[in-house]
Amino acid sequence: MTNTVDENNASLQREIGEFTDALEQQGVHAALQYLNSRTPHRYTGIFRFDDDILRNEVLFDRYELTLTKGADAPLEATYCSLVGQQQAPLEINDATTDARVKGIINTPVVSYCGVLIRDDNGRAFGSLCHYDMQRCQERITDLPLLEVASKLLYQHLSNPAQRQ
Fold it and tell me: What angle do CA 136, 137, 138 make, to 5 degrees?
């Protein structure tokens, strides 16, 4: 059991290093591409809460590589709103059968895996998430990396000298 925990920690540390290298050397879009390469989801994005609107800050689309920003959406029509309300990660493999969200959120998104991004004062800033309009089987091990990545991405985005 200890070897498995040690291996998982070593793996997470390696992934954090790879993510940090992508972020520092190539910018936010490349860092999102790195995160997306580990998931079956089509999209990986950073979203900001702005009253009743969810603003897309940066988006990676695995099928449209030149796209860097997606559309904003009404907050109530997003799973990111639940991440903000619950202040906790949310993973949905199939929204059409998931009792936690079925009938609560009206969105074409079927699969979602997201974590909260907090600002420097600990307040909810937005979310970092993977999502898709098709059913995806997410790997649970991605949540720890997403949580660390959300902190690093916020720091990067809030520093105008680093913003790309």
Answer: 105
**Per-residue pLDDT tens for 118-161?**
999 999 999 999 999 999 876 666 889 999 999 999 999 998 66
- Residue burial 60-76, b: 16+ Cβ < 10 Å; e: rest: bbeeeeeebebeebebe
At 23-39, the pLDDT tens digits run 999 999 999 999 999 99
Q: What angle do CA 58, 17, 143 make, to 5 degrees?
A: 60
118-129 burial, b if ≥16 CB within 10 A, otherwise e?
A: eeeeeeebbbbb
3-state secondary structure (DSSP) of residue 84:
helix
DSSP reduced 3-state for 71: coil
Instruction: Please give the structure tokens belonging to residue 159.
Output: 């520093």
Which residues, in sequence order, are CB contacts of 83 under 8 Å at separation 6+? 89, 90, 114, 115, 116, 127, 129
Instruction: Provide the strand spans (E) within 1-158.
Output: 43-50, 53-61, 73-74, 90-92, 111-118, 124-132
